[in-house]
Amino acid sequence: MSIQEMSIQAETDPRFVSRLTKNTLALIMAGGRGSRLGPLTQWRAKPAVPFAGKFRIIDFALSNCINSGIRRVGVLTQYKSHSLIRHLQQGWSFLRGEFGEFVELLPAQQRIDENSWYAGTADAVYQNIDIIRDHEPSHVLILAGDHVYKMDYGRMLARHVETGAKITVGCVEVPLHEASQFGLMEVDEVGKVVRFVEKPKQPQPMPGSNDHALASMGIYVFDALYLLELLTKDAGTLRSSHDFGHDVLPDAIEAEGVYAYPLRDVHDPAQESYWRDVGTVDAFWEANLELCDVLPELNIYDEQWPIWTYQLSTPPAKFVFDHPQGRGYAVDSMIAGGSIVAGAEVHRSVLFSNVRVEPGSHIEQSLLLPRTTVGKNCVLRKTILDEGCRIPDGMQIGVDAESDARLYFVSAGGVVVVTAEMLGQPHLVR
């Protein structure tokens, strides 16, 4: 198949699989601290944070790989990685090594420098340079493990080869008022990147728009040999912070050969696709509640592009009691398996696996993470309960702002995060 034929197929086939994807090694960056998520990352890495009732954030990048035909994946871990590693072992061990398929764990091992852990995203990849060489890929796909989106990497790889790029950067349009959180790009008429600025304090709009900028998604396709060359050069540069966005990408742009690839819907390349950076408590809360809409922008019910995960063996969700003193029901909500709503009201909320809500309680605009329990006659509004929390009878959260600020974590947008430790209970994060 010619490059032109592969490009045409990539634009028309939502499940584009070829030698390009089979000869690609994907590396998922999953070692960041995730400090902007506050208490939710106190005991777990950000990619391991539960999302959408039954998944974890990293499941989206991994599912994109599998659905795109990329079955050689390394996950780079570092901080508080126990729950992430266990999730990968339980849910992602189905690939067959004898067929050259794998999801490998690549923890920080001080393989290159015995005195330091991963110093930046580029350094994290460089410290595994021998493993990359051993797999002999034609291309290396670098992914962030903490974003929620669906994307066909096969199309991106085909465009990378078609343009003759050395590096292709996945990009998405973001509102200008949020743009300072991202690396921003300027591109010419053929999509070549002419300038890249990492998290500018005063972001500039993209051409043709007054209120949007073109942001890097933290997704990169590299020619494998070129990547090894860049990493070796960066490792020997004393002034470098050893980060793709800060150092490697700007230097490569000066040498040319860097192209942008806009995020597109996996079924309709003419349409932009859903993408969320759920790196703050407010963004995480909002992205989960968006899924309660009648037609949410992110379709997690898509049978042609499924999101894979470790599936707990749980009974169906149950709603019990139907009398004036307590009626168990949920409206505009998602309720995961193993959950019981007993004579309680749930409005626009997400209940994760094995959650129990007792009679007389009222849950509104809240996220109840796995294995949480809410006692009788409680009120929870705009609240996130972390794993294993047990709310005693009669407690109110999200009602008294002054009390919430004194006892719990309250985000800039007014979302109250409650952990087991805040309630005087042992943490049960899995």
Automatic annotation (TrEMBL):
Assembly with partners or alone: Homotetramer.
Family: Belongs to the bacterial/plant glucose-1-phosphate adenylyltransferase family.
Protein name: Glucose-1-phosphate adenylyltransferase
Keywords, sorted A to Z: ATP-binding, Carbohydrate metabolism, Glycogen biosynthesis, Glycogen metabolism, Nucleotide-binding, Nucleotidyltransferase, Transferase
ATP-binding found in the keyword field: yes
Known function: Involved in the biosynthesis of ADP-glucose, a building block required for the elongation reactions to produce glycogen. Catalyzes the reaction between ATP and alpha-D-glucose 1-phosphate (G1P) to produce pyrophosphate and ADP-Glc.
Glucose-1-phosphate adenylyltransferase/Bifunctional protein GlmU-like C-terminal hexapeptide domain mapped to chain residues: 315-418
Reaction catalysis annotation: alpha-D-glucose 1-phosphate + ATP + H(+) = ADP-alpha-D-glucose + diphosphate
Entries under Pfam families matching the protein: Hexapep_GlmU (PF24894), NTP_transferase (PF00483)
SUPFAM superfamilies reported for this sequence: Nucleotide-diphospho-sugar transferases, Trimeric LpxA-like enzymes
E.C. number(s) listed in UniProt: 2.7.7.27
NCBIfam families in UniProt: glgC, PRK00725.1, PRK00844.1
Domain (Nucleotidyl transferase) ranges: 26-292
Coiled coil: none
Keyword Nucleotide-binding: yes
Domain of life, source organism: Bacteria
Top-level EC class: transferase
Site features described as Could play a key role in the communication between the regulatory and the substrate sites, chain residue numbers: 78, 117
Gene this protein is translated from: glgC
